[in-house]
From TrEMBL:
Subunit field text: The Tol-Pal system is composed of five core proteins: the inner membrane proteins TolA, TolQ and TolR, the periplasmic protein TolB and the outer membrane protein Pal. They form a network linking the inner and outer membranes and the peptidoglycan layer.
Membrane-crossing residue ranges in chain numbering: 6-32, 124-147, 167-187
Protein name: Tol-Pal system protein TolQ
Gene name as annotated: tolQ
Pfam families: MotA_ExbB (PF01618)
Organism: Ketobacter alkanivorans
Length: 227
């Protein structure tokens, strides 16, 4: 008796459980591949942008470059673009004190950070859901298969292992498929969450450092205007 024949001859309920678990597994594997690709490109883009930012290049020139050739995987670049654009707009408007300029700039960067967080955490909740619910879905199939086996045993005048074995076997297959769907999802969720936390920490550190630079520029300009 092969695994394939057990699946084909399983009860409709157990087959439905297996189909749900298999579908969840395929979707989660696609999302794992998609998240791995995005996070890998995002990490590389972060390193490239930090090298450019700390190379001593003029901020206005860097702003022109990132607008001309934007890298949408670079969260720091998007935060820099949002902050510098708002900083330049408020300074050109005139009549704004340095603190007001910085408040508007930091608010713009904070909004950009939240958008980057949403992009980084995309699909992670689905992986967490698959990891936490798949074993229970598989357990439901297991319980149903064992119940089906005992019902078949009740209709027999002589209890033999061959009567209950197929139902128990199909129940164990449902459990195995549930674990097959859950384990990669849980491992990937934990790994991706760690990478996302690391990236967000870098983004926040960059925001603080960039704010300090702009803070000095804003106060220097205000001092020159008063002089």
């Amino acid at each position: 008796m092969s695994v394939v024949s057990l699946i084909i001859n399983a009860s409709i309920v157990v087959q439905l459980v297996m189909l749900i678990l298999f579908t969840l597994s395929m979707i989660s594997w696609y999302m794992i591949w998609q998240r791995q690709t995005v996070l890998s490109k995002t990490t590389k883009a972060l390193q490239n942008f930090e090298e450019r930012f700390w190379s001593g290049m003029d901020l206005s020139r860097l702003f022109v470059q990132v607008n001309t050739e934007p890298n949408h995987f670079s969260g720091e670049e998007n935060i820099f673009r949002a902050g510098f654009k708002e900083f330049a707009r408020l300074r050109k408007g005139g009549g704004s004190e340095a603190e007001a300029v910085m408040e508007g700039t930091e608010r713009a960067m904070r909004v950009a950070l939240l958008r980057e967080q949403e992009k980084l955490e995309l699909h992670l909740s689905f992986l967490a859901t698959v990891g936490s619910t798949s074993p229970y879905i598989g357990l439901f199939g297991t319980v149903w298969g064992i119940m089906h086996s005992f019902l078949a045993l009740a209709n027999q005048t002589q209890a033999t292992l061959s009567v209950v074995a197929p139902g128990i076997a199909e129940a164990l297959i449902a459990t195995a498929i549930g674990l097959f769907a859950a384990i990669p999802a849980v491992i990937s969720y934990n790994r991706f969450s760690s990478v996302v936390d690391h990236l967000l920490h870098n983004y926040e550190t960059f925001m603080d450092e960039f704010s300090s630079i702009l803070h000095r520029k804003a106060h220097a300009s205000e001092a020159e205007a008063k002089a």
